[in-house]
Specification:
Length: about 290
């Protein structure tokens, strides 16, 4: 009776196959990460594009842009809800009452995809608050501001940043991280606050706040607006003086940040951009041409 020979891999052959599989896996990882990054960037650009178009549509409808923040602390983005297919949420808001009022609790907790970046793994900052990753330029969007397109853009809409993507706070204040935490001071401290003010507070672990971008409904400084007095991903911490103003940058995990321009276009801005070009791009009325590093 003939016995069939049973074929089997030797230990050496198994090791060779395993080595090949590991090599293929190692080669695939960069491609997978690259594809994931490209998808995240595409989503970020699309969000900024939608916000830019909604600002233009709002301006076309009302003859001006929404105020950066009103007396009840509502953000410009909360006024844009009907223009980003969120009319149902908009109708739940009582704009005559403060954002903290119980009457606005249901709308306040709503998470809106257009306001969230896939590049930021932190989903929310405060319980029962829908967060945001997008801040508006406070040179155009301030307390009860009435900016208009094109009147408020003497330098041209194509030369002015209106909105930028940033990282949210992460509810942690034990390990300060300038990409997420910031220094919170009183409104009276604003006059003496400069680009280096936050450094010593971070060094001494004092006055550290972790609620950056906690609510898309909140239009106050570092909640709905920024001023770019610090360069993108500056190593110095942001400072908010009572939510009125201060110093801030846009934050990301990479070597650039994404911004929306007044004409509705979107682009990345390198961390290495010069201070001069950055400031010119944020000021709609400085009369200065942007530098070659734009």
């Amino acid at each position: 009776m003939n016995q069939r020979r049973r074929f089997a891999f030797t230990l050496f052959q198994l090791l060779v196959v395993l080595a090949i599989l590991l090599l293929l896996f190692a080669l695939l990882i960069p491609a997978i990460l690259k594809a994931r990054l490209a998808a995240e960037q595409a989503k970020a650009m699309n969000n900024l594009k939608q916000l830019g178009l909604s600002l233009h549509n709002y301006n076309d409808t009302y003859g001006l842009l929404p105020p950066g923040v009103d007396d009840n602390h509502f953000s410009a983005t909360s006024k844009l809800l009907p223009f980003i297919e969120q009319t149902n949420v908009f109708n739940k808001i009582d704009f005559k009452k403060n954002i903290d009022n119980e009457a606005n609790a249901e709308a306040r907790k709503t998470k809106i995809k257009v306001f969230l970046s896939d590049s930021d793994p932190v989903a929310s900052v405060k319980e029962e608050w829908g967060a945001t990753n997008y801040l508006l330029n406070d040179k155009l969007f301030s307390l009860n501001s009435k900016s208009r397109i094109p009147a408020s853009f003497p330098d041209g809409t194509s030369n002015t940043i209106v909105v930028g993507e940033t990282l949210k706070g992460d509810k942690k204040n034990k390990i300060p991280d300038v990409r997420r935490q910031y220094v919170l001071l009183k409104e009276d401290d604003l006059k003496k606050t400069g680009p280096d003010t936050g450094v010593r507070y971070f060094r001494d672990d004092k006055n550290i706040a972790e609620d950056r971008c906690a609510s898309w409904m909140d239009g106050r400084f570092l909640q709905g607006t920024f001023n770019g007095r610090l360069l993108p991903n500056d190593k110095r911490p942001d400072v908010s003086c009572g939510g009125v103003s201060g110093v801030s940058a846009l934050r990301s995990f990479g070597d650039s940040v994404f911004v929306g321009i007044g004409d509705g276009s979107v682009r990345p801005v390198k961390n290495s951009i010069s201070k001069t070009t950055w400031q010119y791009a944020l000021d709609p009325n400085d009369g200065m041409p942007l530098g070659t590093d734009w």
